[in-house]
Model the fold of this input.
Amino acid sequence: MPLVNYVDHRGNSTPIDVPANDSVMEGAIANGVEGIVAECGGSAMCATCHVYVREEFLALLPPMGEVEDTMLDLTASERRDNSRLSCQIRMSDALDGLTVEMPEAQT
Amino acid sequence: METTVIIGASHGGVQVAASLREMNYSGRIILAAEEPHLPYHRPPLSKALLDPAQPDGLMLRPSAFYEQKDITLRLGKRVDAIDLDKHVVRFGSEEAIGFDHLVLATGARARIPQIEGINLRNVLTLRTLPDAKSLAASLTDAQDVVVLGAGMIGLEFAAVAARTGRRTTVIDATSRPLLRGLSPEMAQHLQQMHEANGVRFIFDDGITAIEGNEAVTAVMTKSGQRINADLVLVAVGVVPNVELAVAAGIEADNGIVVDTHLQTSHEGIYAIGDCAAFPANGGNRLRIESVQNATDHARTVAASIVGKRQPFNKVPWFWSDQYDAKLQIAGLWNGYDQAILRPSGNDGSFAYYLFANDKLLCVEAINAPGDHVAARKILSDGLDLRPEHLADPRFDPKLFMRQQPSHS
Done:
């Protein structure tokens, strides 16, 4: 299973194996990673699963859809160039080792 | 130690517990629910019914969350009575738990019309995870699907059924889909979308009987039509779960009656989410069935419990997925006098902006998230968007949202 490193805003890293095709958000919720809330359950409606993706993985990610792009304007923490909604990133072997940093606040 | 008891562990109940800990509440938190499952997300039940990736639903929080936050989960436990004098909730006759604060997050249940044949096999409702599993299993072998009720759940399920090739008929007692939830303009669009996917609508009609031996075979309508059916979804609205509150002497009227702080007729006892009738729109009581309403209610009540009382004043928003359309609604449409259509792209996406006396009430958008997000901001911050802004074909809601000074 591909691995995701969830890094909280203090810099603590939690590595988790996430089944291929599950989203980065689902991996966090299933394993109790704090820092991802996912209030809408992965419908790209609430912007509470916001993450900052480490630079080296950005190019490997699926392109951002218009819904995600727009919802990122509603994040509780600052939107940056590497901001994504973790519910819209599905894991694959190509993303093994993906590192995402979680913002200080989601709501 | 101070104790908060929450009855009902869906979106609202769980959020009260989570928000209390976020607000550094140090008392005991007991979250009791009749359902035995770990609390789960409900919207996917109707929207992604056949999604094989999530056969067991998506939990709201993992079990570790409740342990880490010292939230006591009492699942599969029915609260039988609330004793207001003693300030206890009773589980059966043998157990009572005292509370300082009590939150009623008891939700709502499907309304079941009293019709002959309503108990036949494959006549189902859709509120819970077991409901969704039964429905998905029945749909596998179904050819003729009848949906009673053209509300949001009925239409979402109709979309699932039609998309997977079932002959699908939606019957509603009113004259159009979503009579309460959507403007006539947007409702007409949704109806056309369903019809283009093969769904047949029957309006201004109802069911008089459901036929079948063990399982359903047909439904009979008031106007005398007989419609073949091997699966019937009953989605004709809900009944708020108020009985526990009423038995305790708490006031209810189409929902548990609460004030602007979501407090019931008794101090320290609150009601939130689908079961709560709260004052909005200049005092009229509303009961809103949505995730946003439940979670925002929850935050308001948690704030009251930790001594930071604030009136509830949030813009309602909703969403629905049907076929390839994402419908997003911000605000409430009732009372509008002007609907302005704004096409938002070349792909058929658009939004209706609904005004009353030139003041924005509601935006209903199809695949136009920019309009939706801007609407949430415009409505919550009281930005002065006027019909004339929309008359300009270059109007960009996101630019408008960013350029306007916030009033809040």
